[in-house]
Amino acid sequence: MANTRESELDYVLGDTLPGPGEALDLAPGVRWVRMGLPFALDHINLWLLRDRLDGREGWTIVDCGITSDDTRANWERVFAERLDGLPVLRVIVTHFHPDHLGLGHWLTEKWGCRLWMSATDFNLARLASGSTVGMGGAAAAAFFGSHGLTDPDALAKIRDRADYYPRMVPAVPSSFRRLMDGMAIDIGGRAWRCIAGHGHAPEHISLFCEAAGLLISGDMVLPRISTNVSVVDVEPEADPLTLYLDSLARHLALPADTLVLPSHGKPFRGLHARIDQLREHHDERLAEVAAACRAEPTHAAGLLGVLFKRKLDLHQTTFAMGEAIAHLNALWLKGELRRELGADGVYRFSPR
Fold first, then answer.
1. CA angle 292, 277, 256 (to 5 degrees)
2. Which helix (H) or strand (E) holds 192?
């Protein structure tokens, strides 16, 4: 959902964006790359950090883009024109989602360097690249069906998407270096502290550089849209929304004037304001869900029109279902709602 309070944020570069295969200087030793995505959310921001590792000068890449010919071609142009003749020394990935990890195998093989990411997301990516994990297939269709999604065409398409993750992440490097909450990484002589976040991904890693006043926020803090927080079939009773909101609160300890480098949207200042906006947004959605459940026992599919005021394509519907279940589970696990399984095999929620 678009941010109605977006004017409270300061987009430091205005509407300036790096073009395909370009890299825009943001700060000393920090360059911004932007790659296309084949979704309604049509881009991802990637970052180049000037580095020195094991006595070698070069660059660290943060996040990779999906596996596609266009993404590879744009990376090749960046390598030829925007690395100052220096190599890539390591690849850091904030979390396992395809737009972030997709080309990680290609980048690390091309440059003979190590992948750095959290152990939880690395191992989930290894599993998902060879199967499905909450992304599609029969299990995902059955899970959404148990929460009220009955459209035969949508369910058939979800069943057919068993290769959704492997198509964009066909391989994961065989080895990695583990990132953990609180760890400090020396990148180019400056310390970048890892901040683990939960809810959007199992163990998302953001990077904060106090000396530069920069936060590479990944998907944890986005300026225009709310981060997707979903329940998926492999953990059907999860409460990712509470985990996400608790993770957001931890970012309030960072300086208010931190320059945020998000994975989607434009770099901005106004971190504390944006966290307040995101918390307000979810408070409003929780109130709407509770009100709908008070009116009558409700399933997640019945909430799509309440929570999302626009027409959704299949890709968006799967995320929307996951988000609706996340809001229901948050209220259920807090004891504010009751969950009952009907004779039709669908879970409905009502007040306690």
1. 160
2. strand 190-197
pLDDT-wise least confident of 20-29, 130-139, 239-248, 298-307: 130-139
pLDDT score recorded for residue 315:
81
The string of DSSP letters for 5-68 reads TGGGSB-TTTT----TT--EEEETTEEEEEEE-SSSS-EEEEEEEEEEETTEEEEEEE----S-
Determine what percent of the chain is predicted with pLDDT higher than 90.
91
Q: Which of 117, 129, 224 is nearest to 169 (CA)?
A: 129
pLDDT digits (tens, 9 = 90+) for 94-139: 999 999 999 999 999 999 999 999 999 999 999 999 876 666 889 9
How many Cβ atoms from other residues are within 10 Å of residue 230's Cβ? Answer: 19
CA 339 – CA 349 distance, rounded (Å): 5
Distance CA 259, CA 262 (A): 10
| Exposed / middle / buried, residue 49 (Cβ in 10 Å: 0-12, 13-18, 19+) | buried
Write down all domains in the chain, each with its CATH number in brackets. 17-351 (3.60.15.10)
Q: Does an H or E element contain 145, and which?
A: helix 138-145
Amino acid identity, residue 271?
A: L
Task: Supply the mean pLDDT for the chain.
Answer: 96
Q: Rounded distance, CA 230 to CA 153, Å? A: 22
d(CA 137, CA 24): 39
Cβ atoms < 10 Å from Cβ of 241: 24
In this structure, which amino acid lies at residue 43? H
Closest Cα to residue 260, out of 197, 218, 203, 199?
218
Total number of residues shown for the chain: 352
The closest alpha carbon to 43, from 54, 34, 32, 55, belongs to 34
| CA–CA separation, 333 and 242 (whole Å) | 10
CA 315, CA 200: separation in Å to the nearest integer? 16
End-to-end CA distance of the chain, in Å?
Answer: 29
Under 8 Å CB-to-CB from 16, ≥6 apart: which residues? 24
